[in-house]
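Handoff note, outgoing to incoming analyst
You'll be picking up this chain. Sequence as last confirmed:
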Amino acid sequence: MAFDTLQTADYSPLVVHFTKGPQKRMVLQEQISRTNPLFVYRQTSARDRLINILKMRVIYASPMPFLPTEQRAVCFTECIWEGLTSLADSYSPYGIVFSKRLIFDAGGGPALYLRGDLLQAFGGDIPEQLHAFIAPFDPDGKNVKSGVRLDWLHEREWRLGEALKFDYADITHVLVESNRDSAEIVHEIGAQNLPDSKVIPIEVYRNIRKAWSE
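Most recent structure output, in case you need it:
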């Protein structure tokens, strides 16, 4: 069975790239140089970032923090739906969904969660081809950056070490905050490019969860 069609309760054949507003940015602003295509979007909201991505049909690679080398990557999560809604609270409810096969064929794959002490010991000797995939794992905040707890295992991350260029047909779904977002973004991108059946408003799930918990 192909890796992108396996069906189990804790596995998804899909990955999501969440957009983030300036208040949620993990990347230090000074890492984005004026020549970087991301520079003009540094203060853009998560919603507008999503719209820009959909219009340009490209996700640019961002500098990765806490690595010994200057490395850029596009980040995704393979979390199942319950995990995605939790990450939407942490980052934003705006994201774009692709198949794992698309990302794999573009050169991406699962992140390599590497112990902080090993990263410090062997950082200079780690093959360059692996740099984009490394996610430091330092839950005690002792090795990579003193006092900074690095534990992103719950994000079940995938990485791509270069910009992702895609066609509208490559989009599996788009995540948005509200029904109003859905209508407005479909109108702006065009229903022929982004049918409303592909757009999932997170507020619908939140309303269902709230109703069933009361």
